[in-house]
Design a protein that fits this description.
- The chain has 5 helices and 12 strands.
- It is α+β, with helices and mostly antiparallel strands.
- The chain folds into 2 domains: about 190 residues, BirA Bifunctional Protein, domain 2; about 40 residues, SH3 type barrels.
- It has a 7-stranded mixed beta sheet with strand order 1-2-3-7-6-5-4, with helices on both faces. It has a 5-stranded antiparallel beta sheet with strand order 11-10-9-8-12, with no helix packed on it.
- α2 runs antiparallel to α4.
- The longest helix has 20 residues.
- The chain is globular, with a radius of gyration of 18 Å.
- The protein starts with a strand and ends with a strand.
- The structure holds biotin (BTN).
- Biotin (BTN) binds next to α1, β3, β6 and β7.
Amino acid sequence: VGQNLVSLTEVDSTNNFLKQSLANSTPLIEGTVIMAESQYAGRGQRQNQWHSQPGKNLTFSILLKPTFLPLNRQFNLNVAISVGIIKAIEKVLGPNAKIKWPNDIYFGSNKLGGVLIENMVQGSQIKNAIVGIGINVNQTIFEDGAANAISVKQILHKDYELKALLAEICNEVEVAYLMLRSENFEPLQAFYLQKLYWLNELRPFAANGITFNGIIKDVNPNGLLCIETNNELIQYNFKEIEFLN
Ligand code: BTN
């Protein structure tokens, strides 16, 4: 991952760039990384926008071809990617990095980065996976909408070299991806759960317009969040459940 690196000054979104390159049949090897200094239409999960001050942060996308992954195990790729990013972040920031389900990157109770994976399915195979990663590195002022955002610089109190962090993330994502590919998924799953934010804590949630208190117990093989409430274990997908504060 990252052997083939394309550095752009400005682009709408590195995910879009990869998607268009694939649509134009541009031959791209697996592990290709597209990074951009600036995105003018960066995208996040839940139709959110992803804002990042030009030149300050990591915004990049990795092309993977997980054709070996059954469609009902798509979430395993999210697990592997999250694990890779956390391992890299831990090298820089120590053990406080967390994964907020499904794959937000947290440090303590603040959001350090996010992941947007877009799978391109053909028949029963994932032909291409576009793994978009945004990490707040040297930005120190965030807009109002991103009140709980934090950056590497705010934690270390000094600038961090973007290329060095990128290399670290690429290495660790590759290690995790190769584990996934060689069917050595157990350790990835275990690490993911161990790093899961709010695991086994009583927390407020909202689902179907109802608020309730529950405890995150697990993430099942389909990637559903398992929450215990009233001695019942209920599974939610990303659209169904909302975290309250
Ligand atoms: C989220 O937290 O909602 C996911 C954010 C993902 C942002 C990255 S930045 C690089 C790539 N290109 C995009 O347009 N989005 C992802």
